[in-house]
Amino acid sequence: MAKPTTIDEYLDAFPEAERALLEQLRRLADEAVPDATEAIKWGNPAWVHPSGTILFVISGHAKHVNFAFTPSTKEAFEADLAKFDTGKGTVKLRYDQPLPEDLLRRMIAHRLREHEQDGVLWM
């Protein structure tokens, strides 16, 4: 299979149930950062600030989606993320659990602020 060149192509590669969560994340991201551009980075959907800096990336897997922020954004929400599996800058969102929309919106807002106010670039 060819690598996706658009987010639509990326989403189309997933079964309906998984695609639904990915589409929900896409809507949330588009609402939270309307000035960002959608792009494919490393084969995954990414949202890029008008300055050219990646704000965050999502990647779909068999049982979950990884939502990748900067490590500093993840660390700022450490207490809120206690019940989630996390990585260096990622939050694992399982397909069989409700999406923590409020938390993700707050994390996206933090990521946007840390880039625009503090100059924090991508990893």
Task: Describe this entry's structure for a reader.
The protein has 123 residues and is an alpha+beta fold. The protein has helices at 7-12, 16-32, 71-76, 101-118, and strands at 37-41, 44-48, 54-60, 64-68, 90-94. It has a 5-stranded antiparallel sheet. The chain is globular. It is built from 4 helices and 5 strands. The protein has a single domain (7-118), classed as Aspartate Aminotransferase, domain 1 (Alpha-Beta Complex), CATH 3.90.1150.200.
Summarize the structure.
By secondary structure, the protein is α+β, with helices and mostly antiparallel strands.
Order of helices and strands: HHEEEEHEH
How many domain regions? Answer: 1
Number of helices: 4
* Strand order across the largest sheet: 1-2-3-4-5
Ranges with pLDDT <50 over ≥5 residues? none
Number of strands: 5
Which key features would you list for this structure?
alpha+beta, Aspartate Aminotransferase, domain 1, 4 helices, 5 strands
Layout of SSEs?
Elements: H1 7-12, H2 16-32, E1 37-41, E2 44-48, E3 54-60, E4 64-68, H3 71-76, E5 90-94, H4 101-118
Antiparallel strand pairs: 1-2, 2-3, 3-4, 4-5
